[in-house]
TrEMBL record, chain A:
Any Gene Ontology biological process: protein ubiquitination
Full protein name: DDB1- and CUL4-associated factor 13
Keyword Ribonucleoprotein carried by entry: yes
Superkingdom of this protein's organism: Eukaryota
Natural source organism: Drosophila melanogaster (Fruit fly)
Automatic annotation (TrEMBL), chain B:
Protein name (Swiss-Prot/TrEMBL): LD41718p
UniProt keywords, alphabetically: Nucleus, Repeat, WD repeat
Record-linked SMART domains: BING4CT (SM01033), WD40 (SM00320)
Location of this chain's protein in the cell: Nucleus, Nucleolus
Amino acid sequence: MKVKMISRNPDNYVRETKLQQHKMPRNYDPSLHPLEGPREYVRALNATKLDRVFAKPFVCNLSGHRDGVSCFGKHPKQLSTLATGAYDGEVRIWDLANRISSRNFVAHDGFVRGIAYTQNGGRIFTVGDDKTIKVWKAEAPEVGEDEVPVNTILSKFGLHGISHNRRDNKFATCGEVCAIWDERHNDPLKTLKWGVDTLHTISYNPVETSILACCASDRSIILYDQREAQPLRKVVLTMKSNKLAWNPMEAFNFTVANEDCNLYTFDTRKLQTPLKVHFDHVSAVTDVDYSPTGKEFVSASYDKTIRIYNAHHSHSRDIYHTKRMQHVVCVAWSLDNRYVFSGSDEMNVRMWKANASEKLGVIRPRERVNFNYQEALKQKYAAHPQIKRIARHRQVPRHVLNAQKKMRTVKEKEQVKEANVRKHTKKSKKVPYVSEKKKHVLKEEV
Amino acid sequence: MTKVTPKGRPKAKTPYKRYFDGQKDTETGDGDLKHVKVFSKNRQNFTGDFISMINKTKKPRPQKAPAKPTKEELEARPKKNPIPKEILDKYSRGEQVQPKGVKTRHFKEQQTRKEVYLEYATEQAARTELLLQETAGQLQADEGETTAEFRQSQIAENVDIQSSAKHFNLNMEFGPYRMRYTKNGRHLLLGGKRGHVAAFDWVTKRLHCEFNAMESVEDVQWLHVPTMYAVAQKSWVYFYDKKGTELHCIKRLNRVNRLDFLPYHFLLAAGNSAGYASWLDVSIGELVGNFNTGLGDIRMLRHNPRNGVLCIGGGRGVVSMWSPKVREPLAKLLCHSTAMSALAVEPKGQYLVTAGLDRAVKVWDIRMLVHDKPLTHFQLRLPANELDVSQRGMLALSQGTYLETYSDLLSGGGSGDGTRLPYIRQRCDAFVHGLRFCPYEDVLGVSTAKGFQSLLVPGSGEPNFDAMEDNPYETSKQRREHEVHALLEKIPPELITLDPQEITGVDAPTLQEKIDAKRKLFHLKAPRINMKSRHKMKGRGGTAKAARNKQIVKDAKRKEFIAEVREAKKNVIKQHTADEVGAKGKAKTKAPRSVLDRFKPKPPKKQKT
């Protein structure tokens, strides 16, 4: 007779001292882990609920400005530095790590219209309503010294925005014309003009660095090349675009923030129809900025909220608002992809987490593994109705809710009307179906 | 000596010699000097001669990196450590999803990419087989012996001391006993019909508590932790803790005969003598399901560990499967033509074993209920009154005082002989009332009318436990931690269905549902339209006009609906007839054609009328 029984040596299963970790022998045999599907589902449900429980996106409030915040300038090299300009001409440099304003000076008479850092972060360019471009050192002056600009350029034209080239030492301003400047010269290298309307925002392409895009007050978006003497192309929308941001990773795409509560993502190669129309805002969208990964962007709106969109989705992923935040004028996504800044009319700069439920601070490896697992579960079970409902639910301010209802009724009414018109028109005169994308683009000019 | 590089060749890597380079060259002499590698300072502190200094010449770089193998070559190459297919199958979660039916290219690619990860995960899981510490037990007979003739005392003599201590008898006097092991196999609960309840750690033989309930005890059951258990007493179910303190008296569960516990749902299932099946959520103390099954006195009740469905054996030879949220049985299985006597579900949830008064024991596949034949059918001399299946698929059955185990559920028989002798048999001193294999141990617990016996059945238990699920060596702190985690992922009772993987699948309509939908088309009624006319301030209105308008709109809507339905019906009929005609047409063309067919007379033309 040969006989053998399971006889476990407890030394292999019990820890010797209390200083050791408990021994956890594993056996991944699926038959020892029954009900895999339902258990995973419950875990996913819990992860989604926890996600909503921990969704506290507001990080801090940076107060100091004495008038509404008008524009942001991101430092290309330092994550903890942010420059903001205000309606009273004051520029503040913030130390974000310590949440204080490290430096402030009055740069212009009237509004500060734009701030741009040079590509190495050594200088700051500001433009204002007083038709001047001022160049400032990025470091604070010594104790006892006054804040004086390194250079002041008087422009012949009004200035509404500035953007610095990512690679070389050129920058562009917009206003009555689009002007390309060299850092070392006091005169523009080139001025580009198409039509008579004011250009109110300008942005350099981060990858194809000689391409620029402007938004004009005649509802058009104009593309320029700094090497060419003539503008490249122009597309006219039904309403004015307020701001424009290039996608930093797919640099042939850009998104504009429009007055008609929507954002439009365009492909430069095909301007007739936007790639995507991003809905959800209930008032004019004032600013837009892409995350450095190019997968998401944040938009600020006159409806006192900021929203975060996936670049390829029409509806927003998240909405941020506080009771005290008024009309949001400018917004920026930090270059480490973790924070979002918003500047609003009530003189405050706010810092938000880009991912509302993210845990700040040091994350231990086991915690990290758990977060990754939860993320995977949420994705796997995202389509289940209960999970979807919890993940999508957002509490929005009453005025937004009312405005949403109103917009919905208006839209429904229009749809009904269109259907009725179609029904009562002769079959020979067909009423065409126009897609939502094509409705908003009037024409493209070359 | 300067060579002129030919025009076609690419530029030499080394730049042309400059005037200062020449100086050096002449100093060092010949160009073919060997490169001397000087070691770091501490390595230079050697005591030997300088002669032994290593002169290392730079090795010439290999001219070309070996060409990268193509994809086909890579696939053809045998893998370094191949995993046997049967092990891979054990860890696999099913076949790959074919991207053929997936709609867009994007999702197709997503699916194929996902499959790569899944395959990798399966492989990694299969590789962990190497790390398992224990091997399963076994009992082998020598030449001329069979395992059936070994007595327990013989086995206990031949195994190690630790294992032989697992064989013991308890003689107790409080009548027929019922028994349960905990899920991790560490603790044992005994309940005597005449009120005796005892809980103890059977491995160390440490008694937790022992008391007499002073009432008849019908059944006992551990709850989710080994510190709490439920006892079905004469009228109600009571909860006790490890020390024997009464925690609750559940008056909503009355006259309960059988208890069972669903650990992942935290449900205590009970079947009572009036035929009610009840599920009590022990985490919130609520009955999530309580209804009359109409089966009469419930004496056989087991849950299926694979999906949490409750299998109840009835007097008419039918096993019905119940979920707490559905008042009808999910499935019914006619197993025996006579009354049933025992019922057991395999721990993997694959097979159901039933025994009837017709002295038959049948094994059914409960994943595929479409087969109306049992997988195996044993005929015994006496009807089996208790059944149980071990983790590794051993079957134990008792016929009165006589007890047999079979090494394999499907084929039966012991390992020594092919003539289907039992693996181990045992005659107990009293009638057997309860029979359970101990999880993760090679032990079979038998409770009889006179006490309890712990029998050694080598090879019955799973040797390697997963500490994240059940840990026989857990400390109290670990137990508490585990309890919290288990509570967090408590499965809601709504998810108890026959197919546990239903929730991960796509909610596609079945063929039956499609047919029903089509059939429904022919019995549709126009929906009732509730129109609310807009309140108009301007113009001449009046109730009569409003009512007329309303009627017009209603009629229009109704007409529209009827037209739609008619169209849909037409389509269905058209499709149906087209299918039939197509089938017929195909059958016609299917006749084999031969070359000589052209000499056949042509079919007569239809005459025009």
